[in-house]
Structure formats: C-alpha cells, structure tokens
Amino acid sequence: MRPPPLNTSAHLADQHPQPRALTRRDLLASAAVTSALLTLGSLPGYQPNRDDKTIELWTLALSPWFDDYLHERIRAFEIASGCKVNWVDIPFDALERKLIAAAAAGRAPDVVNMSDLNFARFVSMGAFTGLDTLLPNPAEATYLEGALRICRVPTRGRRDLLGVPWYVTTQSLIANRSLLEKGLGPSWPTRLNVDWLGLIDLASEFRSKTNAFLFSQPLGQESEVPQMMLAHGVIPFITTNGRLHAGLTQPAVADYLSRWVLMYRAGHLPREAATRGHAHLTEMYQRGEAALVNTGPQFLKRIRDAAPAIYEASVVLPGMTGRLGRGHIPVMALAVTKQSESPKLAAALASHLTSPESQTAFCKLTAILPSTPESLKDPYFRRPTDAEVLGPDGKLVQARAVSAAGLPLATAFTCGMETWPSLRRVFEESFKGVLLAGRDLNAMLIELNVEWDRILSQADPVGMEVIPTPAPIALPRRDLWVTAIEEVRN
Asked: What is the DSSP letter of 109?
C-alpha cells in the first residue's frame, strides 16, 4: 500500500500540530492520571484486565498506510518474545484525551507513541517508566544524541531515560537556482552559506532585483521563532536559585527578534509570514514568488507535481540553521507507561520498533529519517550517482542524502518541560501583535515575560537543564555546504 500524502498526516512532515493550552479541567484530569499511574498497580487485589503475556501498543495516525509494515514488525517481535501484541492506532489529535481516560480507568497501554511537544507534559504526570535498566542495549550507543536528548528528561532531581526516539524529520533548503542567480548573481551558492540572520541581510537586495521574496518563514502562526532563537544560541530564560524563569527582557532576545520584525515591516517578508503557517512556504515557492523554502525534502514531490518548471530549476542544499550550525529535528518517541504489568517486555518492544533494522525499513516506505546512526549507513541514504541525479527521482534521492548527512549534527530544540507548548502559544499570539498591529517589541516582551513567569510558576520547578544548549558546530556544516555547492555547479 502506498504511503499517505504527508500533508494529511502532519506528524510525518517537518512540523507538529500546535497543542492547545491546558485548561483547569485538563489539570484536574492530569492529577488523576498521576495518581492512577503511580499507585493503581500496587493496590491490594488489583488485577490487570489483560493476560500478562499480552502487551498493548498505541501509535499515532499510522494506519492504514503502514499496516503491513507494523504487522510484520509486531509479528517478528511476537515470535522472538513469545508474547502477543495488541496494536491500537490513535488519531493524532485524540491521543491526550484517550490516554488520560485510559490511565484513569487502569487501562493505559504498555507502550505509547508520543510527539516531542507532548512528551514532557506526560513525564511531569509521572506517566512513564525509566528505561535505563530495561533496554537490551544502551541508549547512547543506539540512538542519535540530538534525538535522544528529548527522551532523557530531568525530573525529581534525576535525568532518567523515559522514552526512546523513533522516527525523526529534518529540513533541507530547496532553492530555485534561476531565480537566485537573477537576484544574487552567479555567486549565489557561496553567498547563501550563512545562518538565518545572514539570510535576512540578503533579503533586501534580492527583493529589489526580482520583486520576489528570497524566502519566508512562519513567525506568527505555527511559529518556529522560539526554536530558531535557541538554535542561534539565544536563551530566553534565566535561573534564580536553580529554578527557571522567563528571560525575555534580556537584550540578546530583543536584538534577535528585532531583526525579524524590521525585515517584516520593510516588506522583505510576505504578509503570510505573520498570518499563515508552514503551508504557505511551498505554495509561494512553487508559484515562483520565493526563491528558497526551508522544509522537509518530501515536499519536493509536491513541487514536482504542482510546478514542473520550478522543480526543474530546483536544487537541494543543507537546511538553514542558527549560529550554532545545528538543524532542528522534531522527534517521535516510544515510552513505557507506569501501568504496564510487563515493563521489560514493553521496553523490548519499544527497542525492537526503534532498532536500526526496523527504522531503515520504515524510512524506505515514506519520507522520514531514522534516529539510529547505524541506519544512516544503509545505501538508501547515500548520495546519488550522476546518472541517478539526471533520472526522474534524482532530486528526491539527493534531498534524502543531504538531509541524512546533516542529521548527526542536528538536535531537538524542543524544550523538555511540560509548559513548553503553552509558552510557545502565548509567544506566538504576542509576536503576531508586534508584526501585524505595530506593537512596540520591547513593551511586548516585558508583558510576555510576566505571562511566561506565571505559566512557569504553575508547574513543577525545573532548571536550565531542560533547555537545549548544544555547542556550536559551524565548521562541519560548512563542509556539508561545500559538498552540496560542488554538486550544484556540476
């Protein structure tokens, strides 16, 4: 069966849906879940409702497209382990509600598939079992460091491994070489070897020469600015006595955000940057209204089908990064719940599904990438030959290779704390006001700082350890860029 079009399954694309804010009802339900997960299994007389040799797996919106693959992987595990797996696929938007209800009834699955944005929220409820002593192989030797980071969440003074990374995505820079040469001259490949702020510096020149936009980026809807800020090494938090507080009034934060505001107000970004999410990026690119789109390489198929002439003019380069030189990777994880009566079996299933063998096979079915370095050694991720580049799928093969090459350098810039989705939501609303309503940026940041502190104060205290602060690696990315430029010129 053919894989789904990725726009119908958002978590397989290069972004995740924005979670809504927690309501009082949610918080009360969360408290009930915490109590249930921590104590139900030890109550006198409690008996699980399923056989000890049956474990339940919940995944997110993978059926019916990947039924054959998952049935094969599950059957292989059943034969090796002697247990039965009950697989349940859950719609993406229904997971939180169904998991809370199942846990409160004592029927939580043994293994559950979580997105990175929701993972820390359930960690804070005490929902998951530590896996360090349950996995058959050490996690650090199995998974990419940047993907594993989201699963090792600080909680109660420890940094337990509370999940394992499954499939990931990352971004490539799809470039219209004809339009770029018109706007930036024949040296455009070298000039584009910059970070996001360097790209902003080129936008005015490009706009004046072509009347098109060099690029666009979601700023006010499905905003990527919080992750981009972290990827630039700008940390919008401070700590006092080891506890995390809002740090939006720091000069570095205002300096970074002002670059985007000034660019938008000068007309060097389209209005859609403030009013629409990721969908407008490929729409503008395939109409020839933007020369660059930083997105998942899978969108090349959409461009090929919708705009063949633009596709023919397109080349694939390493994705844009901040000053740290690391791309952002959204991560899907598998976790073992505290209600599991067979945690060792459940951990073995999670390990089996995220093994290099399983992930390599999964990647060959759809446009995702593995979280295991061993998978990246497979010839499927190699650079195409000259003959392949000229073939009908040459650009797609090249895009996959470019993305895979940058994956070991990337990291998950999603903060590992339960309040991160709420902090992002209020940031998005406030920043949209600055872009569209002309609000003063500094005044907005002062107000937003108070709101962030309010949200942080309602959750368990956390420290700077939940914030991704990887070391910069500009030189390895430059090497990737040089390789890609040589391919473009040839």
From this structure: -
